From TrEMBL:
Cellular component, GO annotation: cytoplasm
Domain Quinolinate phosphoribosyl transferase N-terminal: 23-107
GO molecular function ontology, one term from the record: nicotinate-nucleotide diphosphorylase (carboxylating) activity
Protein name in UniProt: Putative pyrophosphorylase ModD
Length: 285
């Protein structure tokens, strides 16, 4: 299911970046007005993301869709058609590579996200996967869409809407007790969960006793997560640092209710096969 579509201004910026002064080759060959068809297909199995943006790019250049457009969030088998567009060769060439590349990168993120979610749910059906704000700068709306299409949620959309206390914050608190820090955060932001990142079990127990809502366990091994889950069952545990499809099941089974990962942002793109063919020119009577 498509959570949202990137706005026209962002899509226009992408198209303009690829052809700031038009398509020199199509212009020089004089093929711009000729009719054609552009078809996008999944080269391998994938969780799709970005088809709505590809369609809208085509519409912005006067192209029309032919047949069904696969929706972001759909799981596609190799060879499945994503989108087919018809129009002039000039517009088809102007949209082709930008639309293809966007789908490939976003589908790579969505597919990798889905793999982590599937692994986590094998360990605990109620385990949640969230992805960090470590997306490539400037790509947040697109990256978050891909994360949502893969079945996860954003960990933090920004610094402005979450409370996450790092050791780097605590370095400026001097000898302030954890309970005092928690109390201050609750007074200032009474409706928000307080998350504290910890680097070992001793820190985890101290901040749990102080009243933290969620402990973000940075690079703690699975056995440490299991011990903490048994010691402080009333505190939600979030495993973070190095979480991927290979270890998500183990962390979920050990008692981490939340898995925090940046791995999907570094996933390989999912290849999209493209065919561009000329259509017969209609002759007016």
């Amino acid at each position: 299911m498509n959570p949202y579509t990137l706005p026209d201004r962002e899509l226009e910026a992408l198209l303009h970046d690829d052809a700031p002064c038009g398509d020199a080759t199509s212009f020089a060959l004089g093929i711009g007005p000729q009719p054609g068809r552009l078809v996008f297909r999944a080269r391998y199995d994938m969780v799709l993301c970005g088809s709505e943006e590809a369609l809208r790019m085509g519409e912005l250049r006067g192209l029309r869709p032919v047949g069904r457009v696969a929706a972001s969030g759909e799981t596609l088998a190799a060879g499945a058609e994503i989108l087919s567009l018809e129009g002039t060769a000039g517009s088809l060439h102007g949209v082709w590579k930008t639309a293809q590349t966007l789908i490939e990168y976003l589908s790579g993120i969505a597919t990798a996200t889905a793999a982590i979610v599937a692994a986590a749910r094998r360990g605990d059906p109620d385990c949640a996967v969230v992805c960090t704000r470590k997306n490539f700068p400037g790509t947040k709306p697109a990256a978050i869409k891909a994360v949502l299409c893969g079945g996860a949620s954003p960990h933090r959309l920004s610094l402005s809407e979450t409370l996450l206390v790092f050791a780097e914050h605590r370095a400026f608190l001097g000898d302030q007790p954890p309970a005092a820090s928690i109390a201050r955060l609750r007074r200032q932001w009474p409706e928000r969960a307080i998350v504290v990142e910890v680097g070992d079990e001793t820190e985890a127990l101290a901040w749990a006793a102080a009243g933290a809502d969620i402990l973000q366990l940075e690079k703690l091994p699975v056995d440490a997560v299991d011990r903490l889950h048994r010691q402080i069952p009333g505190t939600r545990l979030a495993a973070a640092g190095g979480v991927n499809a290979g270890n998500a099941e183990a962390y979920a089974r050990a008692g981490a209710q939340i898995l925090v990962s940046s791995a999907p942002y570094f996933a390989a793109p999912r290849d999209v096969a493209v065919t561009l063919t000329a259509l017969p020119t209609t002759t007016e009577p």
